[in-house]
Design brief:
- With about 140 residues, this protein is mainly alpha-helical.
- Helix content is about 40%, strand content about 0%.
- It contains 5 helices and no strands.
- Helix 4 packs antiparallel against helix 5.
- The longest helix is centred in the middle third of the chain and has 18 residues.
- The protein is globular.
Length: about 140
């Protein structure tokens, strides 16, 4: 579940916020290696050198490319993205050997970034509650 949660959360960054996509930043991260894409790779595989691709797990590629129905699917898309971010956050409590995140989320920035993704608040503000959504 955790690898899929991180993949879906990553895919949400490709969808504009106004259409239900991620409310937190990622794709504009200018760092060469230790960037948001690398972080997602680390959470899924344990390596910052493995970058994920957009798998269109939230909105299929044809709909995404055409933009058709994106407005109508906004609420459904937002619910899918919120669920993915909550699951990804909850995966940080599960040890890697039990299927959880493959990299720790110990720094305050990581924790408050999830707050921005889940709660939609300003950057570096609130650490969201864990909800046990993957257990």
């Amino acid at each position: 579940i955790c690898t899929q949660a991180y993949q879906t959360a990553y895919d949400c960054h490709w969808i504009p916020k106004g259409f239900g996509g991620a409310t937190c930043g990622c794709l504009d991260d200018p760092a060469p290696v230790f960037n948001c894409k690398g972080w997602y790779g680390a959470m899924m595989t344990g390596s910052w050198l493995v970058y994920p691709r957009n798998h269109y797990s939230v909105v299929d590629e044809a709909t995404f490319d055409s933009g058709i129905l994106m407005e109508q699917k906004k609420n459904e898309t937002r619910a899918t993205c919120l669920n993915a971010f909550q699951q990804a956050w909850d995966c940080t409590e599960i040890p890697p050997e039990l299927g959880g995140a493959k990299y720790p989320c110990l720094e305050d920035f990581c924790q408050t970034w999830f707050g921005q993704c889940i709660l939609g608040g300003p950057p570096n503000s609130v650490v969201p509650p864990h909800r046990g959504s993957v257990l």
